[in-house]
Amino acid sequence: MSAAAQDKRRRELARIHLLAKELGLDDGEYRDVLWTIQRVKSAKDLDAHGRQAVMDHLASRRTGHPAERERRHARPGADREGLAKKIRAQMDDLGVEDEYIDGIAKHMFGIERWTWCSPEQMKKLTAALWYSQRRRTHGKKQ
Q1: What are the structural domain ranges in the chain?
Q2: Which residues contact 44 (CB under 8 A, 6 or more apart)?
Q3: In the chain, what is the straight-line distance between the N-terminal and C-terminal CA atoms, in Å?
Q4: 115: nearest Cα among 88, 90, 76, 78
Q5: pLDDT given for residue 68 in this prediction
Q6: What angle do CA 112, 120, 123 make, to 5 degrees?
Q7: Which residues, given as ranges, of the chain have pLDDT below 70?
Q8: What is the rounded distance in angstroms from the CA atom of residue 113 to the CA atom of residue 83?
Q9: Nearest partner of 70 among 126, 100, 111, 114, judged by Cα
Q10: What is the pLDDT of residue 73?
């Protein structure tokens, strides 16, 4: 990992801990958030996307905006993880960033981030991406 990437990771981890402290989360609550959002026991186990998801979640709780956590339900980790990997692969194939799929999730479900979607919603996102892939490879049929 490059020095710049290590610095960014360190800053993001510090931000996560600062947000948790500002919210007054004790260690148990903090670890519950990590487990609920990304299925990890420690922030050090988060990848870049996971760190962003946790920061977004904690920031939304701090600012008092209607949080997606109220809409979320407990999901099986394995089901969600597999769907997330499929969506990432489709995004890579299409050459799009998270903002693209976030826009689709916002349009389809009113959810700000695609990573907050339920497994059923993620299945619908994979279908939407499949149609985009098909349009790009086969062209629009009249």
Answers
A1: 1-70, 76-142
A2: 13
A3: 48
A4: 88
A5: 44
A6: 90
A7: 62-79, 139-142
A8: 15
A9: 111
A10: 36
